[in-house]
């Protein structure tokens, strides 16, 4: 797990699904970046994000939880990219967002993309 900001290495204990997704991706050997959000100068933690496979132009999807994400009140995740179960290439670039997702559901979509786009070859614009 890589953290963008090392000031805090754990997130709100109510946010269990994002940590579960991080563990599933790590166990499967799927590259991703885990980072926390700070929304004010005092450094108060406001949420977390997983980026797959990496940040920047090679980003395929990201999963977030914060006070404004769809499903956060139930510890469920919001995903941008890979918003269909089959993750067809023409749907990867739509930028659609889906909320109220479990870690397992997000993992299935990311793993499907990873497996069908050549594993390590999956990095880059899919």
How would you describe the overall organization of this protein?
There is one protein chain. The chain has 126 residues and is of the alpha+beta class. The chain is 25% helix and 23% strand. It is built from three helices and five strands, in the order αββββαβα. Strands 1-2-3-4-5 form a five-stranded antiparallel sheet, with helices on one face. α1 runs parallel beside α3. It is globular and about 40 Å long. The model is unreliable at 1-10 and 89-94 (pLDDT under 50).
Termini distance?
23 Å
Share of helix among residues? 10-25%
Rg over CA atoms:
14 Å
Question: Order of strands across the widest beta sheet?
Answer: 1-2-3-4-5
- Strand-pairing-aware structural class: alpha+beta
Strand content: 15-25%
Largest sheet: 5 strands, antiparallel
Tally of DSSP helical segments? 3
| Series of secondary-structure elements, N-terminal to C-terminal | HEEEEHEH
Q: Strand tally, please?
A: 5
Average pLDDT taken over every residue:
79
* Unreliably modeled segments: 1-10, 89-94
Globally, the shape reads globular
